[in-house]
Specification:
Helix content: 10-25%
Shape: elongated
Strand content: over 45%
Number of strands: 47
Structural class: mainly beta
Number of helices: 10
């Protein structure tokens, strides 16, 4: 009773204006055009409350008290307006243009002033960008990410004695995760992140896709600013005036005044850009605050606040926030990759039907120039072994944002959602499907073995797969069995793997295979597994050889970015046709080959997340390099031939802020010794050996020569160059966004002792092969069209023979 009396006394002592606080909302528009005015200045007359700026849609929201009488609305080039605060909670404010201030000279001078400030801010980046100013720094970050319905954002009074309403409000959010990370920056090494604590509602194991997701850039000083994995042109980049226009809105009246600079995309359709304001210090031209917004299918609002450190004379990021709200159309928020998510931002008119996503990060324990430089040299993100098992006391000590009762109930609520909707299963299916597997319990079904069609086997049906971690983390079994209906033969594989080191992905493998292989193919053992619903070249290949092989290999990652595989194989080869190999007066139709293979793939510019048991590529960087060396040894395990094969390949993709990208593939292959045609090189031809353009209509490949006929060329020395340039998609509708691609392909090669290869006619590439192509991809349901033309030394007499017309298919789950 005594405690209750004290509560009544405190409430009675509260000032009336605090009890009468209410929220005003409104929109500021141009009186003449009736369009929203973004970043107009909203202030309460005769109040020390902080001014606010309207959003990108001209909207504003602010708290007012009973003593507040007038609002003042100001915007450059417009006549300011005072509005009396009445009983209404919403105000539509129309500003009239100020004829004097719309004078061309005035507008030009304000624009020039803004440009001068931006130029100065860019010049001073070496003093204000921590990455340029310091040799090292460190800080700890607490991040909280939620998906919730907008009802929780509304400032309304509800009768919480109604138990049903109270339960709805308090039962928890749609999604919640929190994370504590230590960041270290060392000059020449960059920023490294160590996740010391993480937990995600509904998941006992780490959600690696979420841990690796770049929610928001740490700085606005770079060339690009990233929000949820999407890159936007930076307003303080090296060439800012190519992408943005700027103007001065105001100057803050604080201890450290700041210019308020409005930036707006100049080439919105060509360059991905944000619209917002920069608060630039008038003394050192450092960023005090930055706000960027984007309106569309999803509304994005990204903010970053900075704290001033007098000793270092620098503004350092203290708080970051990004919010996603439903826009003009529904769009899912992808957290785990693809289109699967716990929460989405659907369409709907009622706020309670809409979800929002909010991510807030708070930095603390900031240290300059006194940082332990003992950094992991390879991985950008490290997950501490105990990150998922930190005690409650650790979270309580390190949280920078309150963890409410509603947050606590979220973990219980989402646990049931994840279980009921089988979210873990959906994530597992998505991750495996992208590399060609479908998980069924402890077994991953290999989708590539189910159905194929080619000119030799006809219809090829079967099944296969590999055991997964549910079976064992240290042992795996794999295999397949297929049947060709045209050649009427069974092919199969059986294999076994033993894990020697989970962290370095070291496996010892044994296998036996009886199958067919395309003549002239060369596969890198260490290349990433690639899966496509259509394997276009297989349909038209008709030149195979049969083989039976015993293989033993070791897979090992020396570093996260350096993959390797070492293999010993004993191969028995039989021909499917009349081809024969002449060597030292002996004609071979069947032969044995013993090969030693060393294969490497190096990705020096990719970023990796290093977990206790594995490393994951979280950001694909280019270029990537592959190298493979094969040595055939005569006499070893009854091997007949002695030859050496070396292959090297570079993949380089340039992604631009203009939404265009260029892909380059450069490959060189070289072989010498006793080399049968089965083990030479081809340039990945993909043109059926048929008369007429329409009969040759089929599926275009990803890295194939579309006008080069099958078995037309073979080489023991070969170099190829392929360049693809994709233009930004043409947005015809929300679902139809075709991509135009220009392609050029070139090959040059030769072969020694061509007469040794009998009962076959083929050409060589010593004069150089050239092909140009254009594709219009993703016209409808992932399908598109491809047209290619060969020219130069190997141009054929009939025009139609130099052309190819095919369809393309690009599919993403």
């Amino acid at each position: 009773m005594k405690k209750f009396s004290w509560c009544i006394f405190i409430l009675l002592c509260l000032p009336n204006f605090m009890l009468a606080q209410r929220t005003l909302k409104g929109v500021v528009i141009d009186q003449e055009s009736q369009t929203p005015i973004p970043y107009a200045n909203i202030s309460i007359v005769n109040s020390d409350k902080e001014n606010q700026l309207t959003g990108i849609d001209g909207s504003f929201q602010l708290e007012v008290g009973e003593r507040d009488s007038y609002l003042k609305i100001e915007y450059i080039g417009s006549i300011s307006k005072k509005i009396k605060i009445g009983v209404n909670d919403f105000y539509l404010v129309q500003l009239q243009k100020d004829i004097e201030k719309l004078d061309e000279v005035y507008l030009k001078s304000t624009g020039l002033l803004a440009d001068r400030i931006i130029k100065k801010a860019i010049e001073q980046k070496k003093y204000n960008d921590p990455d340029l100013k310091f040799s090292s720094y460190s800080f700890r970050t607490y991040n909280k990410l939620i998906i919730d319905d907008q009802k929780s954002l509304l400032n309304i009074d509800l009768d919480t004695t109604n138990r049903e309403v109270k339960t709805i409000l308090e039962e928890g959010r749609a999604y919640l995760s929190e994370q504590i990370s230590d960041f270290k920056f060392i000059k020449d090494e960059g920023v490294k992140q160590k996740i010391v604590a993480t937990r995600t509602a509904g998941f006992k194991e780490p959600v690696y896709e979420l841990l690796s997701l770049k929610v928001q850039s740490n700085t606005w000083y770079k060339e690009k600013y990233t929000v949820f994995g999407n890159d936007y042109a930076g307003p303080l980049s090296k060439r800012p005036f190519n992408n943005y226009t700027y103007k001065v809105l105001d100057t803050t009246q604080t201890d450290r005044p700041a210019y308020v600079i409005y930036f707006q995309p100049k080439r919105e359709k060509k360059v991905a850009g944000l619209e917002g304001v920069l608060y630039i210090d008038t003394l050192n031209y450092g960023l005090q605050k930055a706000v960027g917004q984007l309106k569309g299918e999803v509304e994005i609002s990204a903010e970053q606040d900075f704290t001033y450190y007098p000793k270092e004379d620098i503004w350092f990021p203290e708080k970051q926030n990004v919010m996603l709200l439903p826009g003009s159309g529904g769009k899912k928020v992808s957290i785990f990759g693809g289109n699967i998510s716990l929460g989405s931002l659907p369409e709907g008119d009622e706020p309670s039907n809409k979800l929002f996503l909010n991510s807030t990060s708070i930095n603390k324990d900031i240290t300059f120039e006194r940082v332990d430089e003992n950094l992991d040299k390879t991985s950008s993100i490290i997950l501490a072994p105990n990150a998922t098992s930190q005690p409650i006391s650790f979270w309580q000590k390190n949280r920078s944002i309150p963890f409410t009762e509603r947050d606590k109930k979220t973990f219980k609520k989402v646990d049931s959602i994840v279980k009921d909707q089988n979210i873990n299963r959906k994530i597992d299916v998505l991750q495996n499907f992208n590399i060609g597997y479908f998980p069924i319990g402890f077994f991953n079904l290999d989708l590539r073995t189910l159905f194929k069609f080619n000119d030799y086997e006809g219809l090829r049906l079967g099944a296969g797969g590999v055991t997964n971690d549910k079976f064992s983390k240290t042992v795996r079994f794999q295999g397949y069995g297929v049947y060709g209906f045209k050649d009427r033969e069974i092919k199969y594989n059986a294999g076994f793997g033993l894990s020697l080191n989970r962290k370095t992905n070291t496996w010892f493998n044994l296998s036996y295979t009886k199958d067919i292989q395309e003549v002239g193919s060369f596969h890198y053992l260490s290349d990433a597994r690639v899966y496509s619903l259509f394997e276009p070249r297989l349909v038209n290949i008709n030149f195979y050889y049969k083989y039976r092989s015993f293989q033993s290999s070791i897979q090992h990652n020396f570093f996260p970015e350096l993959l390797s595989e070492f293999q010993v194989s004993k191969i028995a080869v039989d021909q499917t046709g009349s081809y024969r190999y002449l060597r030292k007066g002996r004609v071979y139709s069947s032969y044995d080959i013993t090969e030693l293979t060393a294969s490497f793939r190096w990705s020096p510019y990719s970023d990796y997340l290093e977990a206790p048991e594995k490393s994951i590529e979280v950001n694909v960087g280019y270029p990537k390099f592959s190298l493979q060396v094969v040595q055939a040894i005569p006499g070893m395990l009854d091997g007949d031939f002695n030859y050496t094969k070396v292959g090297a390949k570079m993949n380089y993709t340039i992604n631009r802020i203009t939404q265009n990208n260029t892909e380059i593939i450069l490959e060189g292959d070289y072989a010498f010794g006793e080399l049968p045609l089965t083990h030479t090189f081809h340039a990945y031809p993909n043109n059926p050996n048929k008369e007429g353009l329409i009969p040759r209509f089929s599926v275009a490949g990803r890295r194939t020569f579309e006008t080069m006929y099958f078995s037309e060329f073979f080489s023991d020395r070969l170099a190829t160059l392929q360049i693809k340039h994709r233009l930004r998609p043409f947005e015809i509708s929300k679902r139809i966004k075709p991509e135009l691609v220009f392609i050029t392909r070139h090959a040059i090669g030769d072969i020694s002792n061509q007469a040794q290869h009998q009962n076959i006619t083929f050409n060589t590439l010593e004069h150089g092969y050239n092909e140009a192509a254009v594709e219009l991809n993703k016209i409808l349901f992932g399908f598109g069209l491809s047209f290619a033309y060969r020219y130069g030394a190997y141009h054929l007499p009939q025009i139609e023979e130099n052309m190819s017309l095919k369809f393309t298919f690009y599919f993403q789950l």
